[in-house]
Amino acid sequence: MRKDSRLSRVLHALIHLDHHGKPATSDDIGKMLGTNPVVVRRTMAALREQGYVSAVKGHNGGWSLARPLSDITLYDIHKALGDSSVFTIGLTDEHNNCPIEHGVNNALRDVMHEAEALLLARFKQVTLANLASEFGQHSV
C-alpha cells in the first residue's frame, strides 16, 4: 500500500527554508526531497495561496517562508495540502450487497473518524517551530 508522504516532505522543506534563511529554488527543494521541481512548484503554490510561503522570481529568487514557524501548525499545512484523510486505510465497496461488508465498513468508519479527529486536534497543537527545535543542536 502506498503511503502519502506529502505532509512530512513539505514539513522537511519548510524547516530547511527557515534554517537556511534565504530563498530556495524549486530545483533546490526538488533535489533535497528527491522529487521533480514541478511537483515542488505545485505544492508550494498551494502553501503560497494560504500565506505560508512566498516566491520571488529571478536571480537570487526562490521560495521563502512568509510567516515564522511558530505561526504555522501541522494542521495548517495538512489543510493547505488538500485536507486528505490522514489514513491510507480504505473501506471496501467490492460487495455492495453484502450485509457483513456494510457492518464492517460502518464499524471501521466510526473508529477511523474518531482516530482522525484526535490526530487532527493534536496537529493543531504542534507548530513547525516545535518540530524545528528538535534540530537546533544538529546541522541541517
TrEMBL record:
Gene3D superfamilies attached to this UniProt entry: Winged helix-like DNA-binding domain superfamily/Winged helix DNA-binding domain (1.10.10.10)
InterPro entries in alphabetical order: Tscrpt_reg_Rrf2, WH-like_DNA-bd_sf, WH_DNA-bd_sf
Record-linked PROSITE patterns: HTH_RRF2_2
UniProt cross-references to PANTHER family, sorted A to Z: HTH-TYPE TRANSCRIPTIONAL REGULATOR YWGB-RELATED (PTHR33221:SF15), WINGED HELIX-TURN-HELIX TRANSCRIPTIONAL REGULATOR, RRF2 FAMILY (PTHR33221)
Protein name: Rrf2 family transcriptional regulator
Protein species of origin: Bowmanella yangjiangensis
